[in-house]
Amino acid sequence: MSAARKHTALPKAQILIEALPWLTRHNGKTVVIKFGGNAMIDEELKAAFAQDVVFLRHAGLKPVVVHGGGPQISAQLDKQGLVSEFKAGLRVTTPEAMDVVRMVLAGQVQRELVGLLNQHGPLAVGMTGEDAHTITATQHRPMIDGTAVDIGRVGEITAIDTGAIQALLDDGRIPVISSIARSAEDNHVYNVNADTAAAALAAALDAETLMVLTDVEGLYEDWPNSDDVISRLTATELEKLLPDLSSGMVPKMQGCLHAVRNGVETARVIDGRVQHSILLEIFTDEGIGTMVVPDAAPAAPHDAEGES
């Protein structure tokens, strides 16, 4: 090999070496990834997401993917002539609408994601929160003007059983989980917020990391006056910010808060519009997005493999 050819290959080696400390740190650890936003719709981003998750698996991590499917659900409800009504920011989910939700999540979004992952080997296994009582829920009744309101089949998580997921991880598989659950009280199936489900699963699995893909760069310091992203904050700092966050960010950041207060070492909100954002966050010194850590977390150098 000529000196010139050796030289042009060198940056590849430097990139791999930069990943070494993070490979060592994350080896054998569980990471729960909430798949959503534009990454769920754009074909190139979907393919890059699948590559990232398979890379994590081959790099010695144990990825678990949790997904919702708001845009796909809305499109299918429209197609079937079912009108979506919203109360307290939540979709009123009739039994008929719940049939559509279940069909879209488990039969469309999950199937496509499993297919993308399995282009790289027999790795992904699709399941829903109903399977093996993985997620149990009760009916969620939001308070509107001081009164609990019935919004149909929208669920609030009451219990998590990680047995089936853990068995898949122990077998080297990648679980892909749709955020629907069954109630132990009335045996109905409920639609559960996917951000909330991912956070609850991360805590129950003793995951090292929760990663939430979204359509913004992270949590902004002073939106809309500035687009500076907060790279790192503690659980208490996040809790103080929650009342002022935009409605779309609230379940994501509440999920991050729940995760780090229940044993997860770091929770990150990252920009799913950036190809390979998961790898950039986990395996580079720069990292991207916003990372939430427990209050007691020491400020280690680049604490975070992933701090911006």
TrEMBL record:
Catalytic activity as recorded in UniProt: N-acetyl-L-glutamate + ATP = N-acetyl-L-glutamyl 5-phosphate + ADP
InterPro entries named in the record: AceGlu_kinase-like_sf, AcgluKinase_fam, ArgB, Asp/Glu/Uridylate_kinase, Glu/AcGlu_kinase, NAGK-C
Pathway: Amino-acid biosynthesis; L-arginine biosynthesis; N(2)-acetyl-L-ornithine from L-glutamate: step 2/4
Gene3D superfamilies per UniProt: Acetylglutamate kinase-like (3.40.1160.10)
Keyword Acyltransferase: no
GO biological process: L-arginine biosynthetic process via ornithine
One cellular component term from this protein's GO annotations in UniProt: cytoplasm
Pfam families named among the record's database cross-references: AA_kinase (PF00696)
Name this protein carries in UniProt: Acetylglutamate kinase
GO molecular function: acetylglutamate kinase activity; ATP binding
Record EC number: 2.7.2.8
Similarity comment text for this entry: Belongs to the acetylglutamate kinase family. ArgB subfamily.
